[in-house]
Every structure is written in structure tokens, then in C-alpha cells.
Amino acid sequence: MFCPSCGTKVQREGQRFCTSCGIALVDTTVHEATEAVPATAASAPDAAADVATAATAATAATAATAGATAFVPLAPLTPVSPAADGGDPTVPVTVPAAATPTLPPPGAPAEVAAAAPTVPVDALASVLRDNAAQQPTTALTVVEQTGYSPPDEMWRATAPAGAHPPQSWPADPTPAATAVLEVTPTYAEPAGPQPFRITPLVAVSTLAAVLAVASALVDVASWEVTGSEVDSFAYRLNDFASNYLVGTIIAAVLLLAGAATGATGRRIGTGLAGGTGLALAGMMAMMVAQVTAEFDRKDIEYVLRANADSGFSYTLTVTHELGFWLAVVAAVLGVVAFVLSIITASGPDGHQPVSAAITVIGAVATLLVVVGTLIPMEGAQFADQFANDFTPPATLLLRLLVLALIAVGGFTGFVNSRRWGLGLALGTISIGVWQWATAITESGDIPLGIAGGNLGAPDFAPHILTTVGVVVMVLCAVVGLLIKPRATAALPAGQAVPLP
Tag placement on the chain: N or C end, fewer CB within 10 Å? Predict the structure, then answer.
């Protein structure tokens, strides 16, 4: 037996694979049944030889043309002869279908299995359209076009380290439509109230309030004369101005209330405490100026008496009593409260700034209070407020200090344009309002006005400019706290904002 592919002789019976080419020598394929092969009217031996010869030739031809494709030979076919069984020798020999493979004729192309049934493209498209028409559709999600990113920014985001940018960049291919818009600034919501806590401002304000009230309840100054004449006198705070005692109480209440309110996170309270500290310092400075002037006056009085009477001898002793020093310390603490107020709460508070009109009008009103008090009356000279022959220089300077403190508190408060600033302005003019009210109504024995009133005035009534300034300051501060203006800032001319 030989290999049908390479012709190598099979070495042993039952060998399954060729030792030369490796082809299988056993038929492992499934053959289809074929129709009977007609045979010519020849003798049985000739017919069997013809069938065997045809099978061998077909096998060799197919192996030569198909290359790797080979047919496994079957066992030699034994034709069934009718003559051997006593039949008619002229009947064609029939080879059993199960034992005879289907062999293509020599030179015929290899058979190719039929392709799977296909569906025409037009028919498939029609079916898909019908299915799509029956399926429900979902809403599309519209994604807005993102803004144009400059090429230089895109390059920096993606370029490797150490790379150099190109010399030029392409322009925006699709410039957005632009329009000049008004922009309304938004402000963060102000923080809510906080639990009360002891702050440095609370401690300083409390101590200043206690010392201020205490200074009004004890002696402030005294003098005593011995010699040819024996005399003495002790002054209380109200002996220099009948509205000082109530002024210290007002200052104490506003200091405590303002500091306590500010300790809960409300900046208006912090500003009120700082402004009241300036007002208290101003009132106590005016008291020190009056004590200095009173001691100077008593000294001049006894000097003149001794010059007029050569036999008159005296010893004058002046004393700054406990109340004087309490008042001085209270004034210093008032200034400290002002400084602490600026440090802790002068910045943005989450509220919109007040209207610019309130800021300007309030600042002008502060100026009117200062200028109106400096206007001389009844023939007095303006320069006499800085130096004269009847008043000690310290007294004149301390009086000017009172006006300076009002100016600082008023200007700072209104220019700040926030609730802290409005509280500061109110606190600064708080004691001044009381002094102005008692002076214009002449309530009390010595109802001195702001900074002692106008120089040379025949009575205690303040100047009309002072009156206007005090009233407008209070109104501006109150209106600014009650009204919440909408601040609208327009873009600079020519600046455009991309439309959405």
C-alpha cells in the first residue's frame, strides 16, 4: 500500500498516517452518497478493472492539483457481478454508494461549498427602517459650545517640559458675539449672629465705661489758699459743664452695648463702641482743658490781689483729684477702643456698601460740625482759637483735639461706607448730640456745646452750621443703616462681555 499524496510505501498494516508527508491514511471525512456509476456492457472482471483504474487516476489527479487537499483511499472495490450470482452478465455493475467516493473528473476545478444564504441590502435597510419607526426615541441632550481657549493656554497645558512656544498663534476662528453689559456685583451673605464671647474690645470698653462714670461721681480737682485768706474749693465733673454727668452715662451705655453687640459678630456694634470711645476721649480732653484753665485763672486772681495789696500774702495749692485721673485713663481707653474697632471689624462685612450720596453728605456734615464750632462770634478773632492772652495754650490745644477726634471718627466712618463705619460715625457724634441739644435749649447751669461752644459767643447756643452738621450726620448714619442700596457697577467703556 502506498501514500496517495507522496507515494511512499506504507510500512505496516493499520498505519494511520504517512511517515513522509504526515497525511492521514484513514478516511476521516464524511462523504455524501452518490448516484450509481453506469458501466459499459463488458464482462465483470473488465468492469471492475475499469472502476479501480478510474478511482486511482482520479485520486492522483486531485492530489496533484489540490496541493494540501488529499483524498484518503478506500479499500479496493469489489464489484458485484450479476454473473457470479447467476444473473445476467449484460446488466450494468452497481457499486455500493457507501463504499464509493465522489471523485471529480481529472482537470476539473475544486468544488467550493455553497455560500450561506444572503439578504439583499435594500431589503435589510427596509427592515431596519421599519424597526426604527416602531421604537420610541429619547430626547437629545444639548451641550452648549464651550468657550474658545486661546492656543497659548492649550499649548501650555499639553506641551512637554522645556518646550519653547511657537512665534505666533492662530486667531480665534469663531469670534463670539459681544455686547456691553452692566454688571451688578454680588456680595457674600453676611455671617449670622455668633455666641457672645469676651473680646479685647469688650474688656477695654467695659473698663472705660466704669472709669468714666466713676470720674463723674468723685472730685476731679481742688484748690486751697492759706495765708492772709483761707479758702478752698473742690470740683466735680458737672461743675465744668452741667451736661458732663449725663454725657459719661451715655458714653458708658453705648460702649457696653456696642462692644457686646460686636462680640456677637455684628460689626455695627464694633463701630459704635469705637466711635463712642473717641467721643468719650474728646469730652474728657475738654474737661482736662477746663481744669487747666481754672487753675490758671485762680493763680492769676491771687497774683493780682497780692500785687494790689502789698500786705496780702497767700499760698495757693491746686490738686488733681482722683476723678481727674480716672477721666484721663477713661479717655486713653476710649482711643484704644477705637483702634481695636478698626483692627477687628473695619473690613468687608458681607453687606452692600451704602450709597455714595450718603457717604459724601455724611462727610460734608462732619466738616460742618468742625467748621461751625470754629467760627468766632461777637468780634472774636479766628486766630484767638490757637493763641491768646487769656487762655492757656494747653487749653486751646485740647479744645482743638476734641474737634480733631470728631473729624477723624466722622470721616473714617462715612468713607468706610459699611455698617461698621456708620456705627463709628454715630458713636463719634453721640455725646456731641447731647451737648448740642442741651446747648441749643440752654438746659442746665453750664450747658456747654461741642468743644465748649463758639469762641466769643454771648450764650451757649451753637452756630447754625454746627446745628446743620449734627442733624445731617445723624440722619445719614441712620438712613444708611435702614436702606440697603443696590450698587451697580458698569464695565469700562469699550469693554465687552461674550454673550451666552
Answer: C
C-alpha cell at 243: 451736661
What residue segments make up the domains of the chain, in order of their start?
1-106, 200-490
100-158 per-position pLDDT tens digit: 455 555 555 555 555 555 556 566 566 556 655 555 555 555 555 555 555 666 666 67
Tell me the C-alpha distance between 191 and 295, whole Å.
53
CA distance 85 to 150: 102
d(CA 417, CA 487): 12
Question: What's CA 344's distance to the chain center, in Å?
Answer: 22
Residue 240's CB is within 10 A of a number of other CB atoms, namely: 21
pTM above 0.90, yes or no: no
Contact in structure between 467 and 436 (CB atoms under 8 Å): yes
**Cα atoms in the Cβ-side hemisphere of radius 13 Å centred on 489:** 8
Report pLDDT for 344: 82
Name residue 114's amino acid.
A
Distance of CA 73 to the CA centre of its chain: 90
CA-to-CA distance for 334 and 277, rounded, in angstroms? Answer: 4
252 and 277 in contact (C-beta within 8 Å)? no
The answer to whether 209 and 216 have CB atoms below 8 angstroms apart is no
The CA distance from 396 to 384, in Å, is 9
Which residues, other chains included, contact 496 with Cβ-Cβ below 8 Å and sequence gap of 6+? 178, 179, 180
Q: Among 64, 89, 93, 67, which Cα is nearest to 79's?
A: 93
The residue behind cell 457697577 is 489
Count of CB atoms within 10 A of residue 330's CB? 28
3-state percent helix, strand, coil for the chain, nearest multiple of 5: 50, 5, 45
Q: Where are the alpha helices (DSSP H) in 417-463?
A: 419-441
Any residues with CB less than 8 A from the CB of 236 and at least 6 apart, and which? 216, 217, 218, 219, 220, 323
Residues 6+ apart with CB under 8 A from 49: none
Cα gap 493→56, rounded to integer Å? 104
**Higher local confidence (pLDDT), 182 or 363:** 363
Scan for cell 465483470, then name that residue. 44
Give the sign of the dihedral formed by CA 94, CA 97, CA 99, CA 103. Answer: positive
Joined grid coordinates for residue 77: 472495490
Q: Which long-range contacts (CB under 8 A, 24 or more apart) does 120-125 make?
A: none
Between CA 389 and CA 195 the distance in angstroms is 56
